[in-house]
Amino acid sequence: MDKKYVAEPYRIKMVEPLFETTKEERIKLLKSAGYNPFALRSHDVYVDLLTDSGTGAMSQQQWSMMMLGDEAYAGSSSFYRLEKVVKEITGYQYFIPAHQGRGAEKVLLPQLVTKENMYYISNTHFDTTRAHVELAGARALDCVIDECFDLDKYHDFKGNMDLVKLEHLINEKGKENIAGIIMTVTNNSAGGQPVSMENIRKTSEICQKYQLKLIIDGARFSENSYFIKTREKGYQNKTIKEIALEMFGYADVFLMSAKKDALVNMGGIIAIKNDRELFLKAQTMVVPYEGFPSYGGLSGRDMEALAVGLKEGMEEDYLKHRLDQVRYLGEKLKAAGVPIQYPVGGHAVFVECKSFCPHIPFYQFPALAVTNELYLEAGVRAVEIGSLLLGRDPDTKENLESKMEFMRLTIPRRVYTYNHLDVVALGVINVYEKRKELKGYTFLEEAPILRHFTSTFKPVE
Ligand code: F0G
Q1: Helix 77-90 / helix 240-249 crossing angle, nearest 10 deg
Q2: Distance of CA 156 from the midpoint of ligand 1 (Å)
Q3: pLDDT in tens, 350-405
Q4: Start-end of CATH 3.90.1150.10 domains in the chain
Q5: Which residues of the chain does CATH 3.40.640.10 include?
Q6: Bigger pLDDT: 66 or 6?
Q7: 282/243 Cα distance (integer angstroms)
Q8: Distance 54 CA to ligand 1 centre (A)
Q9: CA dist 332 → 49, 275, 339, 411 (Å)
């Protein structure tokens, strides 16, 4: 169709009402939430951009397949339908479901930590991945390219692994001390930035050279594949399915939070290429942690929705629209001078709050200050991805300083329209106008792990 006649590639069959609040109400609501947006009730949020995780809208095909859910404890036919799709997409031999991404991490990551003082190296660990690496007694090292930190500089694949640094780290720590290499696609914590196929292939070559396992943390593998298709030479005429298959071919393990690109509200995937021993270990551990290996914490109907969602998430019309929404919001903000990670990534616009609020030091969480002000201004909920999320050094317990202080405006899949995004843009721009008045935060109560979820705060006077 002619480009000017293209809108959302779906029409709305069921609606969910949104409720407005006044600024006076929001001031009270935020205070009683301990100035932590995670503690707000969704009823009190107008446009909720906290996360794209489990917040997408399912299709009529997904809802209808849920009626066929086979709730057998063992050997459910829904499991076999899902397994077939996972094997087809990845080309891998083994599949184990998990209730969500972190369930998959908890089952698999400790299996490669075979002794003390080991490391996982990633382009960037997501926070739950980092937590599971540390809970398994290992340490998490991040190794993304420097261009990622140059926010205004255009680079097609800012999520890439720094290959020179990767090899250097392997040699410095000793290859026998590396539990595995984790490639996060897209690179969530670095701004939802994509990773190129060339970078994945070269990382795989390094893994083979040192006999290390390459794990794809592929919560957003379809979005990453779409970026490869549109930005990397030689992929324009390939389908998303072909691109994804090539990518999985370079790795040994695929972990997925299915709550993102697989368009379900709950679900996770562990897929293993051909290492039977690793599969058996993971299968043993999934039973006490997640459930019997033919359901892994999911009901039969969840597995049906996931089997359909995995495929729908790879449809090009959908991906084109999805990434256009994110680009649209990003460009509106950039045009108004708001500092953002540019170009925008796949699932969110990351507003850079270090330069937004240079007067707020990292230990008073500038991105939390901007996030809270956005809620007060427009009822929009975003999330801090910066020093608050990064947490403390597990050894010294010092507050770590994040290289970037982001407010993430995360766009749920198939949920909001361009009009909602206009509201968000206006809210952010108005907060930007009064950025000099914003104040930082200190802890009222700090949670010991994954502190950003449950800690409470008070504004610094
Ligand atoms: N890996 C990546 C890259 C993620 O983005 C997430 C979750 C996980 C693993 C963990 O998966 O939530 O299903 O347990 N990211 C969400 C977010 C929470 O908001 O970015 P999960």
Answers
A1: 80
A2: 23
A3: 999 999 999 999 999 999 999 999 999 999 999 999 999 989 887 899 999 998 89
A4: 23-52+315-459
A5: 60-312
A6: 66
A7: 27
A8: 10
A9: 16, 47, 11, 15
**Of all helices (H) and strands (E), which one includes residue 142?**
strand 139-142
DSSP assignment string, 57-93: PPPHHHHHHHTT----SSS-HHHHHHHHHHHHHH--S
Nearest Cα neighbor of 93 from 251, 255, 273, 241 is 273
Enumerate the active-site residues. 73, 126-127, 217, 219, 260, 452
Prediction pTM value: 0.95
Which helix (H) or strand (E) segment is 459 a member of?
Answer: strand 456-459
Q: Distances in Å between the alpha carbon of 197 and those of 194, 393, 444?
A: 10, 33, 45
CA atoms within 13 A on the CB side of 205: 7
Q: 384: CA distance to ligand 1 center in Å? A: 14
The CB of 100 under 6 Å from ligand 1? The reply is: yes
Mean pLDDT taken over the chain: 96
Distance CA 364, CA 370 (A): 12
CATH for the stretch 23-52+315-459: 3.90.1150.10
CA distance 33 to 35: 5
| 95-121 per-position pLDDT tens digit | 999 999 999 999 999 999 999 999 999
The pLDDT value recorded for residue 461 is 86
The hierarchical CATH code for the domain 60-312 is 3.40.640.10
